[in-house]
Amino acid sequence: MVKIITFLKERKIIAGLIALTFYVLVVSQHLEFGKFLAKTLDKPLGRETYNLIVLSGSIFLLIAFLFWFYKGWKQLPKTDQNRLLKYVLFSIVFIVIALKVIIVVNVELIHILQYAIMAILLFPLIGHYNETLFWTNVLGALDELYQYIYLSPEKADYFDFNDVIINLLGVALGLIILRSKGILGFRKVPKGVKSPQFIALSITALIIGILFLIEQLTIYPSAYDHPVLFEFIRDFKPGFWRIVHPNVNFHVVQPLEGMIILVLLFAFYTGIEGKISENTHK
User: Tell me, what's the pLDDT at 262?
Assistant: First the structure.
């Protein structure tokens, strides 16, 4: 892993092409992948068997992740071991909660694998743990926005914060793997109001604020007598649970709720790298 990251960070064009190819051909195609699995396994075997197979595969991947994590983790200093073990345990808890509350079908766990790999591929380009955490999740949000507005607007009646949250958990697992191998950030970034994250969030907040003021953006279905550019929720259904099937229900994360969860998760995962000397990030 260390050799691969070193190779890619010294050859950023190659790293960029690999990351772009993976994002376009794999990450952005998860809807098609889901349709393929549904056609291949869901309909012939039934939803219950299909979910069981996907869950079993996910458990196998989790075991593989833990084994891969442990191989590097055991060689780290004790303080790093304790910190990363905390992140792994909490991440497993978060994933189980997501599985029970916001995931509709088990195949959506593929988001976690996709974005873990995406984070690993972007790290050699970005060179900073928290920046990678942020920008990889931005890509996830843009992917969901693309689906909501263009790819399947007729099927999506809300912007899917559920998936954005799941994506973030995957990004975190990818960074945890990198850190377990002793890999450190190699680029220093501005802090505070000069940080790329702050600038990006400020611009986004400004755009959203302006759209609200000019009545072109709403959270719930528009009450205006004119069409709007964007609705976070096109078809609001009251109640905590959205019932898809007598045995299938899930919670649709509301916009404000989703933003709060994302901020809290991001704040939690900003400590993955740990306290490193300022001289380390050059």
Answer: 96
